[in-house]
Write a structure and sequence with these properties.
There is one protein chain. The protein is mainly beta and 201 residues long. Helices cover 10% and strands 41% of the residues. 18% of the residues are buried.
Length: 201
């Protein structure tokens, strides 16, 4: 589902102008891609209400005045002390052109290897892909329901996704079940040295 977001053109640039803009409850941003970059601003409250989590592969219908375009969030800056977004970078999707981006991996199912006492190691959490906008998956599910102790699921094991090219190496491990590390501490028992026998005189 494509989300919608309204924006306005940002006329004044520079550090002072952006700081003043943030104080009015707006987030400075830029739109770039196949056309001329556009400096814009979006309402902070509206953005936070619509985007609880920022995803690089979520298509957004961005309206700037009477014009609208399909974009992705390619980067953002955050004030970690205040917990606020301070800048956004939008990438405009060119119609008919493939997009290269990242999509998160979602693990599903319960691995039998866990019931055998193994530990699940999740090696990669996203895939690098290329596809048309209409074919872009929100997530890629990896089912571990048949994963037993000592076995792994690789990138090559992912079922083909229509219109999607994966750039990760086929042999790259996504998840595996490893044996739990058990440290056995051997107690060293030193036999007591017998007392010397008394010598008769």
């Amino acid at each position: 589902m494509t989300k919608e977001l309204k924006a306005e053109v940002r006329e004044q640039l520079g550090k002072g102008a952006t700081n003043r803009l943030r104080k009015t409850g707006m987030i400075p941003a830029i739109v770039y891609g196949h056309g001329q970059p556009i400096n814009i601003a979006v309402n902070e409250r509206n953005f936070n209400n619509s985007f609880k989590k920022i995803s690089e592969n979520e298509i957004i219908k961005l309206s700037v005045g009477s014009n609208s375009r399909s974009v992705l969030i390619k980067d953002y800056q955050r004030n970690y002390i205040k917990g606020t977004i301070t800048h956004l970078d939008f990438f405009e999707i060119e119609k008919g052109k493939a997009i290269k981006t990242h999509v998160p991996i979602k693990i599903t199912g319960v691995a039998p290897g866990l019931r055998e006492g193994g530990i699940l190691e999740h090696s990669i959490h996203e895939l690098e892909i290329e596809c048309q906008a209409e074919n872009m998956p929100e997530i890629v599910e990896v089912d571990i329901s048949n994963l037993v102790l000592g076995h792994a699921i690789h990138v090559r094991d992912i079922k083909p996704i229509k219109g999607v090219k994966i750039f990760n190496k086929p042999e790259q491990v996504i998840v595996l079940i490893v044996h739990a590390k058990v440290e056995v501490v051997a107690a060293l028992v030193t036999p007591a040295t017998p007392a010397p026998e008394a010598t008769s005189k």
